[in-house]
Design brief:
Number of domains of chain A: 2
Largest sheet of chain A: 6 strands, mixed
CATH class of the largest domain in chain A: Alpha Beta
CATH topology of the largest domain in chain A: Rossmann fold
Largest interface: A-B, 26 and 21 residues
Mean pLDDT of chain B: 87
Structural class of chain B: mainly alpha
CATH architecture of one domain in chain B: Orthogonal Bundle
Helix content of chain B: over 70%
Number of helices of chain A: 8
Low-confidence stretches of chain A: 1-9
Number of helices of chain B: 11
Oligomer: heterodimer
């Protein structure tokens, strides 16, 4: 065995305990408890303004939170809804930025090139970010988030601005990358189907609390939109999000 | 000298008159074919030279006919001949060199001070509180008004001229660089945080390159002000340089020399503008 690593395979990467957050007088998070285990894929759903991005920002270290409430073992990285590539740095330099503190220029270039290869954009390394399509930019953003081999990958609605076909491709790519790098993933999304296709566990944030949780044990290759168990969970999740079930008679009449 | 400067022009400037084909060239056809439009553009570019050439020719004809007396303004051919003589005997070269040195030195001092203050104010609240209020108060003062004080403080030598150029350069660079630093998209700074960049790396990779477009607007403005300040300073008092050459010629009613001096001023302005354009094209090549 190699020496003991900071994050044992079955350990907890992120630990949130009784986490509160308020913007002015409005309480957004009112005592959230969450454990994210190493290597696990968690999807976090919630209506707009439910505080799911706020929770992600706490975990990302973008908003200061007391260590007693939020603690993360190891390295985090984030892919945002907009790719947030620095427009004045070339694509490969953007990816290399994630390695500035950990490696030398030559190694940085190599690892950036490998990361770009993994997302299928080898030939775009020398391009300027503003010349990329939305899907390409988002793939670069994923490469940049993963090149540092994070222990916790935070995805803040990274696919919501993409067209439907690109989104499906991105889902497959994310699963591939997750299998290869094995980070724990917290995916914030408002897309129930996306959550059910990708995650091991689906959480719903409601009234500032993690109110509901569904494990999704179905193997990913078997996850189809018509899968009976998934359809059932889907209805439950939608109900938890406040979406009324379809009235069968009305649907038939239409 | 405004903090809300207009955005810089496109990195690749359109040729003079590009797209201005005039109402006649499009004729009755709503959508001219590409070849026709291209010819139209080229003709339009040529057409823009017609009236300046006509003006110069008329000026020459009127001078030759004696309608415009030489004491008021020399003829274009006379100006050309004088320019050749001034180049040949070295007068023009040495005068230009002196003026360029003044602008270069003044610009260097003003730019160093302006950018340093902008960085200090842009990177910290303390710096902003200390630097910005006096700068905002001083920028409303027309810096040419300082000439009497500068002469009292520094006499009539090189120093007051360089100081005047430096004062003119400092404010547009300060205001634009400061605004550039402060207008950097917060989302890029957040991305830098999630990439675990240190403060210095954040400044190097996000703040400085993010502020460059606006700082270049300041650079363009400040170079214009630099030449203007030099002309004013040299006209007030000088014993060398282009301004001295022009003033000296005035005493002897040598209008040809005056025109040559003015032409050199404007050529120098054009050259610096071309340098800034090249710089912008290089520094902003990431823009689509």
């Amino acid at each position: 065995m190699a020496s003991v690593t900071q994050t044992p395979t079955q350990g907890t990467v992120a630990r949130v305990r009784d986490h509160h957050r308020a913007y002015g007088d409005t309480a957004v998070l009112r005592g959230v408890d969450l454990d994210v285990r190493s290597g696990e894929f968690v999807a976090l759903l919630g209506r707009s303004g439910s505080g799911k991005s706020t929770l992600l920002r706490s975990l990302a270290g973008l908003d200061p939170a007391p260590a007693s409430e939020v603690s993360v073992e190891g390295r985090t990285s984030v892919a945002f809804q907009e790719p947030r590539l620095l427009p004045w740095r070339r694509v490969d330099e953007n990816v290399g930025l994630a390695l500035l503190n950990s490696s030398h220029a030559q190694e940085r270039e190599q690892r950036a090139a490998t990361a770009l290869e993994e997302v299928g954009l080898t030939e775009k390394g020398g391009a300027w970010p503003l010349s990329l399509s939305g899907g390409q930019a988002q793939r670069v953003s994923l490469a940049r988030a993963l090149v540092s081999e994070p222990d916790l990958l935070l995805l803040d609605e990274p696919f919501s601005a993409l067209d439907a076909l690109t989104r499906i491709e991105m889902h497959r790519l994310v699963l591939q990358l997750w299998a290869r790098h094995e980070p724990a993933v917290l995916l914030v999304t408002h897309d129930v189907d996306e959550a059910l296709m990708l995650a091991d566990r689906v959480l719903v944030l409601e009234d500032g609390l993690l109110a509901h949780e569904w494990p999704v044990p179905t193997p990913r290759h078997a996850r189809t939109p018509t899968h009976p168990h998934l359809s059932e969970v889907r209805e439950q999740v939608l109900a938890a999000l406040g979406v009324q079930p379809v009235d069968q008679k009305a649907a038939g009449a239409a | 000298m405004s903090a809300l400067a207009p955005p810089p022009p496109a990195a690749v400037p359109a040729g003079p008159g590009a797209g201005r084909t005039g109402p006649r060239s499009t004729g009755g056809s709503a959508a001219p074919r590409p070849a026709a439009r291209r010819r139209g553009v080229r003709l339009g570019w040529l057409r823009r030279w017609v009236s300046p050439v006509v003006i110069v020719v008329v000026w020459q004809l009127l001078s030759s006919a004696g309608v415009i007396p030489e004491q008021k303004i020399a003829s274009p051919l006379q100006v050309l001949a004088t320019a050749r003589d001034l180049v040949a005997d070295g007068t023009l070269g040495s005068a230009t060199l002196v003026s360029v040195q003044r602008v270069g030195l003044g610009f260097a001092v003003g730019a160093a001070v302006g950018v340093t203050l902008a960085v200090a104010a842009g990177l910290s609240r303390l710096g902003e509180d200390a630097v910005d209020p006096p700068m905002q108060m001083l920028r409303t003062l027309p810096h040419f008004g300082l000439i009497p004080l500068f002469i009292v403080w520094m006499g009539l030598g090189e120093t007051p001229k360089i100081a005047l150029v430096a004062m003119g350069v400092m404010f547009p660079l300060y205001l634009n660089t400061f605004a550039g630093i402060r207008s950097i998209d917060r989302r890029f700074l957040e991305a830098a945080t999630t990439l675990h960049l240190t403060r210095w790396q954040r400044i190097r990779h996000v703040v400085v390159p993010g502020a460059v477009p606006q700082a270049l607007v300041g650079l363009r403005q400040s170079l214009g002000v630099a030449w203007l300040s030099l002309i004013v300073a040299e006209t007030v008092s000088a014993s060398s340089g282009l301004g001295y050459m022009i003033n000296h010629a005035r005493e002897f009613l040598q209008t040809d020399v005056i025109v040559v001096g003015l032409a050199v001023y404007s050529i120098l302005g054009l050259v610096t503008d071309a340098i800034v354009r090249t710089l912008e094209r290089k520094a902003l090549s990431w823009r689509p």
